[in-house]
Specification:
- The chain has 16 helices and no strands.
- The two termini are 16 Å apart.
- By secondary structure, the chain is mainly alpha-helical.
- It is globular and about 50 Å long.
- Helix 1 runs parallel beside helix 6 and helix 3 packs antiparallel against helix 14.
- The chain has one domain: MFS general substrate transporter like domains (Growth Hormone, Chain: A), CATH 1.20.1250.20.
């Protein structure tokens, strides 16, 4: 029997849905500029940005449980509809009152549901021997919008303004919703789960997963520094642009995944994960010292190399170390790390920025990423390469 490939219906539809919703989400990398227009200071800016992540983290346990007990499809549909409503609501914001916080909370719920369910679907259907490569290819659906959203925002803001940008996000979210409503359910059948799912905390605090959470947290904190503050950084320093940084970031990540996407599956997680996180640390260090447009582009390249390997490797480790019946809970926790990075990193780096400057802030982020690598290497003892191949992928009806 021929082994299943990557181009399965659920994988393709999930790719389209993730592309469209990611385009809508990533366009809000420009939101700090709008908040500054409305009078937000650096600390308030960090808090508002982090509000979305707070909501995403708070609902992650419920999302993970529902993914494993009720299936994937309904979560994708409901999350899509919430995202459309949240994107449309930004059009009505004209001050820093309660409305912006309510919208950010709703947007966080949508992000938690969609990010968790779509990557869980990808992990469900890729062949185990190509798990890291499959997740890496699927992740391109989120990397391309990262670049497009930066350039789209730059262009729309030069020609029109924030209402046009927010309208474009609504259109993208609607496209993602259409794809989500066509998705099949990919939850593993009962006989494929080695044991009934445990409670959420028991599942996600299992010893094999803890080192992954640690290094993932370091990675997400470093990423939070540029996702939350790149917009104001380039305006303050007068070098580079959001579009050029994320274009370089995306191009490097995609080139790595397409050209060398199978290396982690062949050589193991540890030999490729450690240098990937190190590249992320280098990226934020380069931003700390950037004095030219080219330096910002090089920071984007190193950031893209780091993201290109780190995210799919950590995703594959999460899938390999979690029981199939607990995959939704494990992956919802893994994706929550990136929200937690914003929750902690937004205010933390906002305070560092107010007390010192962008240079100190980015060096702080670089140090946290480097420390997480050291902790991971000293703590992790799992046979990572073998574990990436030890669980069967479910077969979908039809």
């Amino acid at each position: 029997m021929t082994a299943p490939g990557l181009a399965q219906r659920a994988f393709v539809l999930g790719f389209i849905a993730n592309f469209a919703h990611a385009l809508a989400f990533h366009a809000y990398v420009h939101l700090p500029g709008r908040l500054v227009e409305l009078g937000a200071g650096e600390l308030e800016l960090g808090i508002i940005i982090a509000t979305m992540a707070v909501a995403a983290i708070a609902c992650r346990p419920l999302v993970g449980v529902l993914l494993d007990r009720r299936g994937r499809r309904d979560i994708a549909r409901v999350g899509s509809l919430i995202n459309v409503v949240a994107c449309a609501a930004y059009l009505a914001v004209d001050d820093l009152g309660p409305a912006i916080y309510a919208i950010r909370l709703a947007h966080g719920v949508a992000e938690a549901m969609l990010f968790s369910v779509l990557f869980t679907i990808a992990a469900d259907v890729v062949p185990p021997a190509r798990r890291t490569q499959g997740i890496a290819i699927f992740g391109i659906s989120g990397m391309i919008p990262l670049s497009l959203a930066g350039w789209l925002g730059d262009a729309l803001l030069r020609v029109t303004g924030y209402p046009a940008l927010f309208t474009a996000t609504v259109a993208a979210a609607v496209l993602g919703t259409v794809a989500c409503f066509a998705l099949p359910d990919s939850r593993p059948s009962a006989h494929e789960g080695s044991a009934p799912a445990r409670g959420f905390l028991q599942a996600v605090l299992a010893p094999p997963l803890r080192p992954v959470w640690t290094v993932g947290m370091g990675f997400s904190l470093a990423a939070a520094a540029y996702f939350a503050f790149l917009k104001t950084y380039v305006a303050d320093r007068g070098v580079g642009s959001v579009g050029s940084f994320f274009a370089a970031y995306t191009a490097a990540a995609i080139a790595l995944r397409i050209g060398f996407g199978r290396l982690p599956d062949r050589f193991g997680a540890r030999p490729t994960l450690v240098p990937a996180i190190a590249c992320t640390a280098v990226a934020v260090a380069l931003l700390a010292e950037a004095r030219s447009d080219a330096a910002v582009v090089w920071a984007g390249i190193f950031g893209g190399i780091g993201h290109g390997y780190a995210f799919p490797i950590m995703s594959a480790l999460t899938v390999a170390r979690a029981a199939p019946s607990e995959r939704g809970m494990a992956l919802s926790t893994f994706t929550a790390l990136f929200d937690l990075g914003l929750v902690l990193g937004g205010p933390l780096f906002g305070v560092v920025l107010e007390l010192f400057d962008y240079r100190a802030m980015f060096w702080c982020a670089s140090a946290l990423a480097g420390l997480s690598v050291v902790v991971f290497v000293l703590w992790d003892r799992e046979p990572s390469r073998a574990m990436l191949r030890d669980q069967p992928a479910p077969r979908l009806p039809g």
